[in-house]
Amino acid sequence: MKKISASTVAQAMVPDPVTVTPDTPVTDIAALMVEKHFHTIPVVQDGKVVGILGKEDVLKTLMES
After folding, report:
1. Selection from 65, 41, 42 nearest residue 55 by Cα
2. Which residues does 53 contact at the CB level (< 8 Å), separation at least 6?
3. DSSP secondary structure letter of residue 58
4. Residue 12 has what pLDDT?
5. pTM of the entire predicted model
6. CA dist 42 to 5, 30, 38, 64, 65, Å?
7. At 52, which helix (H) or strand (E)?
8. Alpha-carbon separation of residue 14 from 11, 18, 42, 51 (angstroms)
9. Is there a contact between 50 and 24 (Cβ–Cβ < 8 Å)?
């Protein structure tokens, strides 16, 4: 409930988030999302966030392949 009622980003964010890289296989990301109950995961490269991957993105990619 604290995160939902947060008034600053610092109060809402996770201090040590799970991240993936652009080279992480989509199947590994899907497994991580299921295991950890994540809906989104930050994509980080060289210490910088380069994107956010959502479960819809993962499902779409898996269905296309």
Report:
1. 41
2. 20, 29, 40, 41, 42, 43
3. H
4. 80
5. 0.79
6. 22, 13, 11, 22, 22
7. strand 48-54
8. 8, 9, 12, 17
9. no
User: Length of the chain, please?
Assistant: 65
- At which residue do the structure tokens 């991240």 appear? 19
Tokens of 46: 């060289």
Residue in this structure with the two tokens 């990301």, named with its chain if needed: 29
Is 43 in contact with 50 (CB distance < 8 Å)? yes
Residues 13-63 have pLDDT tens digits of 888 999 999 999 999 999 999 999 999 999 999 999 999 999 999 999 999
pLDDT confidence of residue 33: 96
